Amino acid sequence: MTAFRRLLTGVAPHTSWMLGILLLLLVVAPHLVDKYALSVLILILYFAYVGQAWNIMMGFAGELSLGHALYAGLGGYVAAGLFMHYGIGPWAGSFAAAAAAALAGAVVGYLGFRFSLAGVYFALLTIAFGEFTRIAFDHLDWFGGSAGLFLKVDVAPNAFDLRGGPLLFYYVILALAASAFVLSRLLLESRLGRYWLAIREDAEAAQAVGVPVLRYKLMAVTISAALTSLAGVWNAFYYNNLFPETAFGIGRSIEITLAPIIGGLGTLFGPVVGAVVLTGLGEAFTSVGDMLGIPGIKQIFYGLALLVIVMYRPAGLWPWLAERLGVTERRR
What we know:
This protein has 15 helices and 2 strands. By secondary structure, the protein is mostly helical. The protein has a two-stranded antiparallel sheet. The two termini are 25 Å apart. 42% of the residues are buried.
């Protein structure tokens, strides 16, 4: 009950109503749309979730990571490996996945922060660890090596083993996205969140007034990594396959960062708005490319659209949109 009161603290009544209506629409949406629209909604929720997880580290604590695919890949591989070899379901495997990703995040974070790496140098460290892990998994036969790891699909639908159709995965990723939103709100209103914001604005000043900067930076990394690993678990069981070059690839890391950057770093709704815009643009340009039959047109116009958004809305789309909707959230 205390957590619920903290969640609503500072939220205008009309904002609460908007959140309630949005959640209700998302709950009933799968029963009102066709299969294609459902697949688009699933992608939106996935990118909203991973964007929220990354936003904790970058938007709240100010630590740039361009290697978050490391944590998603670890999560997927750990849970899938336990399921394939030992029959341990993904719900239980998620705990092992989150622990492995948190440990990896702690190692990356400690090395970076202990040696005072910041900004682009810390980002390069995260990329390097992702690439090291990709190369390592290419040679780990237990995880399928470079040939990939494939999950069994010829089994009866079972929610406990995440075996089922798109509807099951929709509600799972909806629950994850909603939980990440609530958790982010609670973290921001906590002492931990205030310390993160102080560190983001000026780490040296925060250190001078007694904030244990290294400890709280590590907490941001480990929490973000653990949450991202759950997206990796979901992704592995949704697509039923894993390959090192895609699971740990830099392209996946960039995908994770785009929604909060486009939507608005350091905001709660930014990753959600960014996910809607990015997925919508991607699907629209895919349709245009298929219709015109011009290879690469999606990538060209998609890149141009992102460039325009970044140039004219450098703070993200959500702060601008929130002002017009009368929503109280601001960039923190």
